[in-house]
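Appendix B, Record 12. Input sequence as logged:
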Amino acid sequence: MTSLFDPIRLGAIEAPNRILMAPLTRGRATHGHVPTPLMGEYYSQRASAGLIITEATGISQQGLGWPNAPGLWSEEQASGWKSIVRGVHDAGGRIVAQLWHMGRLVHPDYLDGARPVSASATTAPGQARTYEGTKPYAESRALEPAEITQLIDDYRRAAEHAMAAGFDGYGGSVDNRIRLLIEVTRTLIGVAGADRTSVRLSPPTP
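Logged structural output:
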């Protein structure tokens, strides 16, 4: 009988067991969203899991609105992740990057006052977390058709940085429009292959 401790193949990843570490938002990156050594210690301590899924990691400043959350759009961020991934691998683990764009949940404080983008001009309920405390969400603006290409390019760049950092794979949490999901997924497959690409489905959020 198969048990949690038996190995399993997940696409291109040979996991030593079937225990997957769920992503947990830690908020331990810098204000510039650069991963820190503390994050490396956290992940390497959990390398005995069959596969680690990182905390949600921003593909661009436009898409990230969580205090001290990490990103993967700059060379500095990719370098920070490279050290973390090396530590996990040295400890015998496997790790994949979870890529995301927060859409209307990005507060203007993260965008120098600009409005967040979403599928339509709506306002999320509740409060956003900012470096100055919680604030009401602001009304988003609809992403222009011409901007879709840039958003997809942001995913491509983040995926390329993830591969350069040595991640075993990556996945994305994207807008609920199936067309965008398909286009982004195809783009990521073009960077790393279908056997290293996945999409995380989670319960609805505001």
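The radius of gyration is 17 Å.
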